[in-house]
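Worked example 3. Consider a protein that binds NAP.
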Amino acid sequence: MKTALITGGAARIGAQIVSTLHENGYKVIIHCHQSEEIAQAFCRELNSKRNSSAQVVVADLGDNEAIKKLTQTIKSLDLLVNNASVFYPTSTENSTIEDWDKIININLRAPFFITTELSKALAVSEGSIVNIIDIHSDRPLKNHSIYNISKAGLKMLTKTLAKELAPNIRVNGVSPGSILWPQGLAELSQEEKFNMLDRIALNKHGSTEDIAEAVLFLADAKYITGEVINIDGGRSLNQ
Ligand SMILES: NC(=O)c1ccc[n+]([C@@H]2O[C@H](COP(=O)([O-])OP(=O)(O)OC[C@H]3O[C@@H](n4cnc5c(N)ncnc54)[C@H](OP(=O)(O)O)[C@@H]3O)[C@@H](O)[C@H]2O)c1
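Given these inputs, the predicted complex is written out as structure tokens:
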């Protein structure tokens, strides 16, 4: 059985990636931070479908020591999906060092160090990595400069590590467009939602399944590395 680690795997897009990989025979390691209860319930559900096919690991990805501890518990691995992220607006005038550190550390520093810490295990299995990026890694989203920078960095991380870790490990990315509305601090007004949907060529949201299927495709695509696929319903055509 192949093993996959999915960061931020308890909810939303991450949980769908976990489900899709599990349905396709993977043993899943569900990483979470604040959603441990949800992750444990999800894990029980998956284990009831197939014995010992899921486990939960908890770590704050803003803390590099926690990343080291997490990666030390993983002895063999076939697929790493760097999905966890933070998303909220930061205006250029009012951004703080704390915003910079939080967004850059979780969205960019963590995927780099999780990858380097797990590269030995992934090399043994000739495994792969899929980073969940964002179409705004290429075209900036207004009032989200630190987030845009973090995702542009994650795109370059994907390409540069594809080169560094070849030929034993493939590194690819998936850039979602509009899939699920942001929650909490990042919530959008009705007008912003309408404007966003209006610019999508296919005129609707993508689904979490669309992202998970792209991850599965890249995990199986033995001759693809250093590629990033936009899953955005044609949103990138209109900017
Ligand atoms: N939603 C979209 O339409 C969309 C569009 C473009 C790109 N994306 C990208 O797709 C991915 C998934 O999107 P999403 O909307 O499902 O993400 P999300 O709900 O905003 O976040 C995913 C997970 O990240 C984890 N996380 C946040 N801070 C953390 C920390 N300090 N330590 C460890 N984990 C932390 C959270 O885990 P806990 O809950 O366990 O704390 C959370 O469940 C992200 O990389 C996002 O940037 C999404």
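Take a moment to read the result before moving on. The mean pLDDT is 96. The chain has one domain: 3-238.
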